[in-house]
Amino acid sequence: MPTIHLTTFISQSADIVFDLARHVGLQRDALSDYRQQAVAGTRFGLLEQGETITWRARHFFRDRLIRLKIREMIRGDRLILEQVMGPFLSFRQERYVKACENGSILIDLVHYEWKQGRLGQIADRLILRTYLERILHLHIAYIQKAAEGKRWKTYLMK
Prior knowledge:
Distance between the termini: 41 Å
Strand order of the largest sheet: 1-7-6-5-4-3-2
CATH class: Alpha Beta
CATH superfamily: START domain
CATH architecture: 2-Layer Sandwich
CATH topology: Alpha-D-Glucose-1,6-Bisphosphate, Chain A, domain 4
Largest sheet: 7 strands, antiparallel
Number of domains: 1
Number of strands: 7
Radius of gyration: 15 Å
Number of helices: 4
């Protein structure tokens, strides 16, 4: 099963980074180029343990749906999402936030398996992995920019 591992330093507290990483509106804004919208489940605010969210986004020239469930959440430490419906045979995203001296470290591990068997393995090597990495980098860069600037307040302050 392919795994993507990304590690990012962010100059902000782990609590703020963690909350930004689970904020529905921030993810929608980060991936607006893909017309990503939350269409069912938790559609606004912060995702919590046990909740589901269904995203609709445009990928590979068509609208696609993926429903994710928060399988595990330890506030300020980790958030684990798994696909319960969608285009993958399996999809699991583990997001860890670790406090460090000058901010925090955001670690993303994404384990996925494409449905198309041998053809899917070839597609993964040719385009899918790079495509998923680009989406993750966009989301992480948006979290980082919001966290290190003042924009985090628009997402987290009520």
